Fold each of these.
Amino acid sequence: MTNNDILKKLRVALHLRNDDIIHILSLVDFKVSASELGALFRKEGHEHYKPCGDQLLRNFLNGLVIHLRGPMDDKRVHDKDV
Protein backbone atom coordinates (compact mmCIF):
# COMPACT_ATOMS: atom_id res chain seq x y z
CA MET A 1 0.00 0.00 0.00
CA THR A 2 1.44 3.36 -1.02
CA ASN A 3 1.31 6.66 0.85
CA ASN A 4 -1.18 7.82 -1.80
CA ASP A 5 -3.46 4.88 -0.96
CA ILE A 6 -3.25 5.67 2.77
CA LEU A 7 -4.10 9.33 2.15
CA LYS A 8 -7.05 8.38 -0.09
CA LYS A 9 -8.43 5.91 2.44
CA LEU A 10 -8.17 8.41 5.29
CA ARG A 11 -9.89 11.06 3.17
CA VAL A 12 -12.81 8.72 2.49
CA ALA A 13 -13.01 7.28 6.02
CA LEU A 14 -13.00 10.72 7.67
CA HIS A 15 -15.21 12.37 4.99
CA LEU A 16 -12.57 15.01 4.24
CA ARG A 17 -12.65 17.37 1.27
CA ASN A 18 -9.51 18.74 -0.33
CA ASP A 19 -10.03 22.04 1.52
CA ASP A 20 -10.10 20.12 4.81
CA ILE A 21 -6.82 18.39 3.99
CA ILE A 22 -5.18 21.70 3.06
CA HIS A 23 -6.38 23.15 6.38
CA ILE A 24 -5.10 20.12 8.33
CA LEU A 25 -1.68 20.47 6.70
CA SER A 26 -1.64 24.20 7.51
CA LEU A 27 -2.02 23.33 11.22
CA VAL A 28 1.56 22.02 11.11
CA ASP A 29 2.80 24.82 8.79
CA PHE A 30 2.97 22.56 5.75
CA LYS A 31 1.72 24.30 2.63
CA VAL A 32 0.28 22.43 -0.32
CA SER A 33 -1.79 23.81 -3.19
CA ALA A 34 -5.10 22.41 -4.37
CA SER A 35 -3.54 21.31 -7.66
CA GLU A 36 -0.69 19.50 -5.88
CA LEU A 37 -3.21 17.75 -3.68
CA GLY A 38 -5.31 16.79 -6.70
CA ALA A 39 -2.25 15.17 -8.27
CA LEU A 40 -1.91 12.91 -5.22
CA PHE A 41 -5.41 11.52 -5.71
CA ARG A 42 -5.03 10.69 -9.41
CA LYS A 43 -4.51 7.15 -10.68
CA GLU A 44 -0.91 6.03 -10.80
CA GLY A 45 -0.72 5.92 -14.60
CA HIS A 46 -2.21 9.40 -15.08
CA GLU A 47 -0.09 12.10 -16.69
CA HIS A 48 -0.35 14.43 -13.67
CA TYR A 49 -0.03 11.76 -10.95
CA LYS A 50 2.35 12.65 -8.14
CA PRO A 51 3.56 10.16 -5.52
CA CYS A 52 2.89 11.15 -1.91
CA GLY A 53 6.15 11.47 -0.03
CA ASP A 54 6.78 10.37 3.53
CA GLN A 55 7.13 13.99 4.68
CA LEU A 56 3.69 14.98 3.36
CA LEU A 57 1.98 11.95 4.90
CA ARG A 58 3.79 12.44 8.23
CA ASN A 59 2.75 16.10 8.35
CA PHE A 60 -0.82 15.20 7.42
CA LEU A 61 -1.00 12.66 10.26
CA ASN A 62 0.48 15.15 12.75
CA GLY A 63 -1.99 17.79 11.58
CA LEU A 64 -4.83 15.29 11.83
CA VAL A 65 -4.01 14.72 15.50
CA ILE A 66 -4.24 18.46 16.13
CA HIS A 67 -7.44 18.69 14.06
CA LEU A 68 -9.16 15.90 15.98
CA ARG A 69 -7.79 16.46 19.51
CA GLY A 70 -6.95 20.13 19.47
CA PRO A 71 -3.55 21.66 20.15
CA MET A 72 -1.55 20.28 23.03
CA ASP A 73 -1.80 22.63 26.00
CA ASP A 74 1.10 23.37 28.37
CA LYS A 75 -0.17 21.01 31.07
CA ARG A 76 -0.09 17.98 28.75
CA VAL A 77 3.37 18.95 27.51
CA HIS A 78 4.74 19.13 31.06
CA ASP A 79 3.06 15.86 32.08
CA LYS A 80 4.96 14.09 29.28
CA ASP A 81 8.29 15.45 30.55
CA VAL A 82 7.84 13.98 34.03
Note: The mean pLDDT is 91.
Amino acid sequence: MADYLNAATLFDLAREAEAHVATPCSCTKTPLDGWQSQPLSIDETQFEEVGTLMPEDDPEPTFSEYLPGKTNYWAADAPIAPRYFPYNRCAVWQCSLCSRIYLRYTEGGGYFVDRRMRLLQAALIEDVPLPA
Protein backbone atom coordinates (compact mmCIF):
# COMPACT_ATOMS: atom_id res chain seq x y z
CA MET A 1 0.00 0.00 0.00
CA ALA A 2 1.16 3.54 -0.76
CA ASP A 3 2.35 5.82 2.03
CA TYR A 4 -0.32 7.91 3.75
CA LEU A 5 0.06 11.64 3.14
CA ASN A 6 -1.37 14.07 5.69
CA ALA A 7 -2.32 17.62 4.65
CA ALA A 8 1.09 19.11 5.52
CA THR A 9 2.96 16.45 3.55
CA LEU A 10 0.54 16.81 0.65
CA PHE A 11 1.10 20.58 0.63
CA ASP A 12 4.87 20.15 0.60
CA LEU A 13 4.63 17.60 -2.21
CA ALA A 14 2.38 19.91 -4.24
CA ARG A 15 4.71 22.92 -3.79
CA GLU A 16 7.75 20.87 -4.78
CA ALA A 17 6.00 19.53 -7.89
CA GLU A 18 4.72 22.97 -8.90
CA ALA A 19 8.28 24.32 -8.69
CA HIS A 20 9.48 21.67 -11.17
CA VAL A 21 6.60 21.42 -13.64
CA ALA A 22 7.80 21.12 -17.20
CA THR A 23 5.32 22.16 -19.85
CA PRO A 24 3.82 21.13 -22.18
CA CYS A 25 2.94 17.55 -21.44
CA SER A 26 0.51 15.03 -22.90
CA CYS A 27 -1.03 14.50 -19.46
CA THR A 28 -2.74 17.89 -19.73
CA LYS A 29 -4.75 17.57 -22.95
CA THR A 30 -7.93 17.83 -20.88
CA PRO A 31 -8.03 20.53 -18.19
CA LEU A 32 -8.13 18.78 -14.81
CA ASP A 33 -8.23 21.81 -12.51
CA GLY A 34 -11.53 20.52 -11.10
CA TRP A 35 -12.78 16.93 -10.90
CA GLN A 36 -13.24 15.28 -14.29
CA SER A 37 -13.79 11.76 -15.49
CA GLN A 38 -10.36 10.38 -16.26
CA PRO A 39 -9.72 11.24 -19.91
CA LEU A 40 -9.29 8.29 -22.24
CA SER A 41 -6.19 10.05 -23.61
CA ILE A 42 -4.33 9.63 -20.29
CA ASP A 43 -1.34 7.33 -20.68
CA GLU A 44 -1.28 5.60 -17.30
CA THR A 45 2.21 4.23 -17.94
CA GLN A 46 3.66 7.72 -17.45
CA PHE A 47 2.23 8.02 -13.91
CA GLU A 48 3.63 6.78 -10.63
CA GLU A 49 1.65 6.48 -7.40
CA VAL A 50 3.41 8.60 -4.77
CA GLY A 51 0.97 8.23 -1.88
CA THR A 52 -2.58 8.00 -0.62
CA LEU A 53 -4.97 10.20 1.32
CA MET A 54 -6.79 7.12 2.63
CA PRO A 55 -5.84 6.64 6.28
CA GLU A 56 -4.92 3.02 6.89
CA ASP A 57 -6.60 3.03 10.31
CA ASP A 58 -9.94 4.34 8.98
CA PRO A 59 -11.72 1.55 7.08
CA GLU A 60 -14.77 3.75 6.32
CA PRO A 61 -13.81 7.41 5.86
CA THR A 62 -16.56 10.03 5.89
CA PHE A 63 -18.72 10.86 2.89
CA SER A 64 -19.11 14.43 4.18
CA GLU A 65 -17.87 17.04 1.74
CA TYR A 66 -16.15 20.32 2.56
CA LEU A 67 -17.64 22.88 0.17
CA PRO A 68 -17.74 26.32 1.84
CA GLY A 69 -19.66 29.25 0.40
CA LYS A 70 -21.11 28.76 -3.04
CA THR A 71 -18.45 26.42 -4.37
CA ASN A 72 -19.34 22.98 -5.67
CA TYR A 73 -17.67 19.61 -6.17
CA TRP A 74 -16.83 20.26 -9.84
CA ALA A 75 -15.42 23.79 -9.40
CA ALA A 76 -11.80 24.40 -10.35
CA ASP A 77 -11.37 26.52 -7.21
CA ALA A 78 -13.05 24.08 -4.80
CA PRO A 79 -10.83 23.47 -1.78
CA ILE A 80 -8.84 20.27 -1.50
CA ALA A 81 -9.66 19.08 2.03
CA PRO A 82 -7.86 15.73 2.54
CA ARG A 83 -10.06 14.57 5.45
CA TYR A 84 -13.28 15.01 3.46
CA PHE A 85 -14.89 13.16 0.56
CA PRO A 86 -13.72 12.48 -2.09
CA TYR A 87 -10.17 13.37 -1.12
CA ASN A 88 -10.10 10.87 1.75
CA ARG A 89 -10.42 8.12 -0.86
CA CYS A 90 -7.76 9.41 -3.25
CA ALA A 91 -4.53 8.03 -4.50
CA VAL A 92 -1.87 10.61 -5.34
CA TRP A 93 -0.18 10.15 -8.72
CA GLN A 94 2.66 12.04 -10.38
CA CYS A 95 3.43 12.35 -14.07
CA SER A 96 6.97 11.11 -14.71
CA LEU A 97 7.35 13.47 -17.66
CA CYS A 98 6.25 16.84 -16.26
CA SER A 99 6.05 16.36 -12.46
CA ARG A 100 2.37 17.39 -12.21
CA ILE A 101 0.53 15.64 -9.40
CA TYR A 102 -3.03 14.39 -9.68
CA LEU A 103 -5.59 13.06 -7.24
CA ARG A 104 -7.50 9.99 -8.41
CA TYR A 105 -10.39 8.01 -6.98
CA THR A 106 -13.15 5.79 -8.28
CA GLU A 107 -16.73 7.01 -7.96
CA GLY A 108 -19.11 4.10 -7.80
CA GLY A 109 -22.84 4.21 -8.27
CA GLY A 110 -25.57 1.67 -8.71
CA TYR A 111 -24.94 1.20 -12.41
CA PHE A 112 -21.60 2.83 -13.11
CA VAL A 113 -17.99 3.22 -12.05
CA ASP A 114 -16.21 6.44 -12.94
CA ARG A 115 -12.49 6.98 -12.35
CA ARG A 116 -12.02 10.68 -11.61
CA MET A 117 -8.95 12.90 -11.61
CA ARG A 118 -8.05 16.36 -10.40
CA LEU A 119 -4.82 18.36 -10.57
CA LEU A 120 -3.29 18.92 -7.14
CA GLN A 121 -2.79 22.63 -6.49
CA ALA A 122 -1.03 23.68 -3.28
CA ALA A 123 -3.01 26.93 -3.00
CA LEU A 124 -6.28 24.97 -2.69
CA ILE A 125 -5.22 22.55 0.08
CA GLU A 126 -7.05 23.15 3.35
CA ASP A 127 -6.41 21.13 6.49
CA VAL A 128 -9.93 21.27 7.91
CA PRO A 129 -10.70 19.04 10.92
CA LEU A 130 -13.76 16.82 10.80
CA PRO A 131 -16.61 17.87 13.11
CA ALA A 132 -16.67 16.10 16.45
Note: The chain has one domain: 7-124.
Amino acid sequence: MNFIKRIFGSVQPRYLIRAYVLSTAFMALMVWMTLSAGGAQPLHDRAATLAVFGVGSLLFPFSKLVWDEIKRVMMGETVFFMNAFILMFLKLIVNLFLWGFSIFIAPLGILYLWFRSRNAAA
Protein backbone atom coordinates (compact mmCIF):
# COMPACT_ATOMS: atom_id res chain seq x y z
CA MET A 1 0.00 0.00 0.00
CA ASN A 2 2.87 2.33 0.79
CA PHE A 3 4.24 1.67 -2.71
CA ILE A 4 1.00 2.82 -4.36
CA LYS A 5 0.80 5.88 -2.10
CA ARG A 6 4.33 6.89 -3.01
CA ILE A 7 3.78 6.38 -6.73
CA PHE A 8 0.47 8.23 -6.99
CA GLY A 9 1.57 10.86 -4.47
CA SER A 10 4.52 11.75 -6.70
CA VAL A 11 2.29 12.83 -9.59
CA GLN A 12 0.10 15.91 -9.64
CA PRO A 13 -3.61 15.01 -9.51
CA ARG A 14 -4.34 17.29 -12.49
CA TYR A 15 -1.83 15.35 -14.59
CA LEU A 16 -3.37 12.01 -13.58
CA ILE A 17 -6.93 13.15 -14.27
CA ARG A 18 -6.04 14.50 -17.71
CA ALA A 19 -4.13 11.31 -18.59
CA TYR A 20 -6.94 9.04 -17.37
CA VAL A 21 -9.55 11.01 -19.36
CA LEU A 22 -7.46 10.54 -22.50
CA SER A 23 -6.90 6.88 -21.61
CA THR A 24 -10.64 6.38 -21.14
CA ALA A 25 -11.31 7.87 -24.58
CA PHE A 26 -8.80 5.49 -26.19
CA MET A 27 -10.25 2.57 -24.23
CA ALA A 28 -13.79 3.44 -25.36
CA LEU A 29 -12.61 3.57 -28.97
CA MET A 30 -10.90 0.20 -28.69
CA VAL A 31 -13.87 -1.40 -26.92
CA TRP A 32 -16.16 -0.17 -29.67
CA MET A 33 -13.82 -1.47 -32.37
CA THR A 34 -13.34 -4.84 -30.64
CA LEU A 35 -17.03 -5.43 -30.00
CA SER A 36 -18.13 -4.27 -33.44
CA ALA A 37 -15.80 -6.78 -35.11
CA GLY A 38 -18.73 -9.19 -35.18
CA GLY A 39 -18.11 -12.92 -35.01
CA ALA A 40 -14.51 -12.69 -36.18
CA GLN A 41 -13.13 -13.66 -32.75
CA PRO A 42 -14.46 -15.97 -30.05
CA LEU A 43 -15.82 -14.26 -26.94
CA HIS A 44 -12.93 -15.35 -24.71
CA ASP A 45 -10.43 -13.82 -27.17
CA ARG A 46 -12.30 -10.52 -27.09
CA ALA A 47 -12.45 -10.62 -23.29
CA ALA A 48 -8.69 -11.21 -23.07
CA THR A 49 -8.05 -8.38 -25.51
CA LEU A 50 -10.23 -6.01 -23.52
CA ALA A 51 -8.49 -7.06 -20.28
CA VAL A 52 -5.10 -6.20 -21.78
CA PHE A 53 -6.52 -2.87 -23.00
CA GLY A 54 -7.86 -2.22 -19.49
CA VAL A 55 -4.47 -2.83 -17.87
CA GLY A 56 -2.87 -0.62 -20.50
CA SER A 57 -5.41 2.11 -19.74
CA LEU A 58 -4.54 2.01 -16.05
CA LEU A 59 -0.83 2.26 -16.84
CA PHE A 60 -1.12 4.98 -19.50
CA PRO A 61 -0.37 7.98 -17.21
CA PHE A 62 2.95 6.41 -16.29
CA SER A 63 3.97 5.80 -19.90
CA LYS A 64 2.93 9.37 -20.68
CA LEU A 65 5.12 10.49 -17.80
CA VAL A 66 8.12 8.74 -19.39
CA TRP A 67 7.47 10.57 -22.67
CA ASP A 68 7.04 13.92 -20.95
CA GLU A 69 10.24 13.49 -18.93
CA ILE A 70 12.24 12.48 -22.01
CA LYS A 71 10.81 15.47 -23.85
CA ARG A 72 11.70 17.77 -20.95
CA VAL A 73 15.27 16.48 -20.76
CA MET A 74 15.89 16.57 -24.52
CA MET A 75 14.21 19.85 -25.42
CA GLY A 76 14.02 21.85 -22.20
CA GLU A 77 12.02 25.05 -22.69
CA THR A 78 12.17 24.97 -26.49
CA VAL A 79 9.05 26.26 -28.23
CA PHE A 80 8.01 25.17 -31.71
CA PHE A 81 5.62 27.11 -33.91
CA MET A 82 3.64 24.97 -36.30
CA ASN A 83 0.20 24.39 -37.72
CA ALA A 84 -2.25 23.48 -34.95
CA PHE A 85 -3.87 20.68 -36.98
CA ILE A 86 -0.51 19.00 -37.60
CA LEU A 87 0.46 19.42 -33.95
CA MET A 88 -2.80 17.90 -32.68
CA PHE A 89 -2.51 15.02 -35.13
CA LEU A 90 1.05 14.32 -33.99
CA LYS A 91 0.02 14.51 -30.32
CA LEU A 92 -2.83 12.08 -31.02
CA ILE A 93 -0.47 9.64 -32.73
CA VAL A 94 2.11 9.86 -29.93
CA ASN A 95 -0.54 9.39 -27.22
CA LEU A 96 -2.11 6.47 -29.07
CA PHE A 97 1.34 4.87 -29.37
CA LEU A 98 1.99 5.48 -25.65
CA TRP A 99 -1.40 4.01 -24.78
CA GLY A 100 -0.86 0.95 -26.95
CA PHE A 101 2.57 0.21 -25.53
CA SER A 102 1.91 1.40 -21.98
CA ILE A 103 2.27 -2.11 -20.60
CA PHE A 104 5.91 -2.04 -21.69
CA ILE A 105 6.72 1.67 -21.15
CA ALA A 106 4.91 2.34 -17.85
CA PRO A 107 7.21 0.22 -15.65
CA LEU A 108 9.98 2.70 -16.48
CA GLY A 109 7.75 5.55 -15.30
CA ILE A 110 6.83 3.71 -12.13
CA LEU A 111 10.50 3.03 -11.38
CA TYR A 112 11.31 6.68 -12.05
CA LEU A 113 8.58 7.81 -9.61
CA TRP A 114 9.73 5.26 -7.05
CA PHE A 115 13.31 6.51 -7.10
CA ARG A 116 12.26 10.16 -7.25
CA SER A 117 9.95 9.80 -4.24
CA ARG A 118 12.60 7.78 -2.37
CA ASN A 119 15.11 10.59 -2.79
CA ALA A 120 12.56 13.22 -1.75
CA ALA A 121 11.71 11.28 1.43
CA ALA A 122 15.36 10.88 2.43
Note: The mean pLDDT is 87.
Amino acid sequence: MSTTIESPNYAYPARSKGRRGPNLEKAGWIFMRASGVVLVVLIFGHLAYNLLWTPGGIRAIDFGFVGGKLADPFWQWWDVTMLWLAILHGSNGMRTIVNDYVHKPKIRTVAIGAIGVAAAVLIILGTLITFTFDPCPTAADPALLPEFCASL
Protein backbone atom coordinates (compact mmCIF):
# COMPACT_ATOMS: atom_id res chain seq x y z
CA MET A 1 0.00 0.00 0.00
CA SER A 2 1.47 3.35 -1.02
CA THR A 3 0.48 6.77 0.14
CA THR A 4 1.00 9.90 -1.91
CA ILE A 5 1.72 13.13 -0.08
CA GLU A 6 0.68 16.24 -1.94
CA SER A 7 3.15 19.05 -2.42
CA PRO A 8 2.59 21.82 0.16
CA ASN A 9 1.24 25.15 -1.06
CA TYR A 10 4.32 27.39 -0.96
CA ALA A 11 4.09 31.11 -1.65
CA TYR A 12 6.82 30.70 -4.26
CA PRO A 13 7.14 27.37 -6.08
CA ALA A 14 10.53 25.75 -6.61
CA ARG A 15 12.81 27.41 -9.14
CA SER A 16 12.14 25.99 -12.59
CA LYS A 17 14.95 24.80 -14.83
CA GLY A 18 14.04 27.25 -17.60
CA ARG A 19 14.26 30.34 -15.43
CA ARG A 20 17.17 32.69 -16.11
CA GLY A 21 18.89 35.30 -13.98
CA PRO A 22 20.31 35.32 -10.48
CA ASN A 23 18.87 33.06 -7.82
CA LEU A 24 18.09 35.63 -5.12
CA GLU A 25 16.73 33.07 -2.67
CA LYS A 26 20.00 31.14 -2.82
CA ALA A 27 21.96 34.38 -2.35
CA GLY A 28 19.78 35.20 0.68
CA TRP A 29 20.36 31.72 2.11
CA ILE A 30 24.14 32.03 1.69
CA PHE A 31 24.08 35.57 3.14
CA MET A 32 22.30 34.34 6.27
CA ARG A 33 24.97 31.72 6.92
CA ALA A 34 27.93 34.00 6.21
CA SER A 35 26.55 36.99 8.11
CA GLY A 36 25.69 34.76 11.06
CA VAL A 37 29.29 33.58 11.36
CA VAL A 38 30.68 37.13 11.03
CA LEU A 39 28.12 38.44 13.55
CA VAL A 40 29.19 35.86 16.12
CA VAL A 41 32.79 37.07 15.82
CA LEU A 42 31.80 40.76 15.94
CA ILE A 43 29.42 40.37 18.89
CA PHE A 44 31.81 38.28 20.99
CA GLY A 45 34.66 40.68 20.18
CA HIS A 46 32.44 43.57 21.27
CA LEU A 47 31.49 41.83 24.51
CA ALA A 48 35.03 40.66 25.25
CA TYR A 49 36.45 44.17 24.86
CA ASN A 50 33.70 45.84 26.87
CA LEU A 51 33.42 43.30 29.67
CA LEU A 52 36.73 41.45 29.93
CA TRP A 53 39.56 43.61 28.59
CA THR A 54 38.34 46.94 29.98
CA PRO A 55 39.65 47.59 33.49
CA GLY A 56 36.66 47.66 35.81
CA GLY A 57 34.49 45.45 33.62
CA ILE A 58 30.85 46.35 33.28
CA ARG A 59 31.09 49.02 36.00
CA ALA A 60 33.49 51.01 33.79
CA ILE A 61 30.95 51.35 30.98
CA ASP A 62 29.42 54.79 31.12
CA PHE A 63 28.90 57.76 28.81
CA GLY A 64 32.60 58.60 28.88
CA PHE A 65 33.59 55.04 27.97
CA VAL A 66 31.19 54.98 25.01
CA GLY A 67 32.29 58.47 23.93
CA GLY A 68 35.94 57.45 24.02
CA LYS A 69 35.27 54.22 22.19
CA LEU A 70 33.29 55.97 19.46
CA ALA A 71 36.11 58.48 18.98
CA ASP A 72 38.33 55.65 17.67
CA PRO A 73 37.80 54.91 13.93
CA PHE A 74 38.50 51.19 14.49
CA TRP A 75 35.61 50.87 16.91
CA GLN A 76 33.37 53.06 14.75
CA TRP A 77 33.82 50.68 11.83
CA TRP A 78 33.51 47.62 14.10
CA ASP A 79 30.19 48.87 15.48
CA VAL A 80 28.86 50.00 12.10
CA THR A 81 29.72 46.63 10.55
CA MET A 82 27.99 44.87 13.43
CA LEU A 83 24.96 47.17 13.08
CA TRP A 84 24.65 46.73 9.31
CA LEU A 85 25.03 42.96 9.42
CA ALA A 86 22.59 42.59 12.31
CA ILE A 87 19.91 44.70 10.60
CA LEU A 88 20.39 43.06 7.20
CA HIS A 89 20.46 39.59 8.77
CA GLY A 90 17.28 40.27 10.75
CA SER A 91 15.42 41.90 7.88
CA ASN A 92 16.35 39.05 5.53
CA GLY A 93 14.99 36.62 8.12
CA MET A 94 11.77 38.61 8.37
CA ARG A 95 11.51 38.66 4.56
CA THR A 96 11.83 34.87 4.55
CA ILE A 97 9.06 34.53 7.15
CA VAL A 98 6.79 36.84 5.15
CA ASN A 99 7.45 34.83 1.97
CA ASP A 100 6.66 31.59 3.80
CA TYR A 101 3.48 32.63 5.59
CA VAL A 102 1.86 35.53 3.71
CA HIS A 103 0.04 34.14 0.70
CA LYS A 104 -1.70 37.27 -0.64
CA PRO A 105 0.65 39.03 -3.08
CA LYS A 106 -0.41 42.59 -2.21
CA ILE A 107 0.00 42.06 1.53
CA ARG A 108 3.33 40.32 0.93
CA THR A 109 4.55 43.27 -1.17
CA VAL A 110 3.51 45.79 1.50
CA ALA A 111 5.11 43.76 4.31
CA ILE A 112 8.40 43.28 2.46
CA GLY A 113 8.41 46.98 1.53
CA ALA A 114 7.87 47.94 5.19
CA ILE A 115 10.72 45.65 6.25
CA GLY A 116 12.99 47.25 3.65
CA VAL A 117 12.08 50.79 4.68
CA ALA A 118 12.58 50.01 8.38
CA ALA A 119 15.97 48.40 7.67
CA ALA A 120 17.09 51.35 5.54
CA VAL A 121 16.03 53.92 8.16
CA LEU A 122 17.79 52.02 10.95
CA ILE A 123 20.98 51.60 8.94
CA ILE A 124 21.06 55.29 7.95
CA LEU A 125 20.35 56.57 11.47
CA GLY A 126 22.75 54.12 13.15
CA THR A 127 25.56 54.97 10.75
CA LEU A 128 24.94 58.69 11.09
CA ILE A 129 24.97 58.51 14.88
CA THR A 130 28.10 56.35 15.00
CA PHE A 131 30.18 58.62 12.79
CA THR A 132 28.90 62.00 14.01
CA PHE A 133 28.75 61.31 17.76
CA ASP A 134 30.52 64.05 19.72
CA PRO A 135 30.37 63.76 23.53
CA CYS A 136 31.75 67.30 23.94
CA PRO A 137 30.02 69.66 21.49
CA THR A 138 31.66 73.10 21.47
CA ALA A 139 28.42 75.15 21.49
CA ALA A 140 26.81 73.30 24.43
CA ASP A 141 26.24 74.70 27.90
CA PRO A 142 29.24 73.58 30.04
CA ALA A 143 26.91 72.73 32.93
CA LEU A 144 25.25 70.06 30.77
CA LEU A 145 28.46 68.40 29.56
CA PRO A 146 30.07 65.36 31.21
CA GLU A 147 32.97 65.95 33.62
CA PHE A 148 35.64 64.71 31.23
CA CYS A 149 34.76 67.43 28.67
CA ALA A 150 36.09 70.16 30.99
CA SER A 151 39.60 68.74 30.70
CA LEU A 152 39.60 68.86 26.89
Note: The chain has a mean pLDDT of 87.
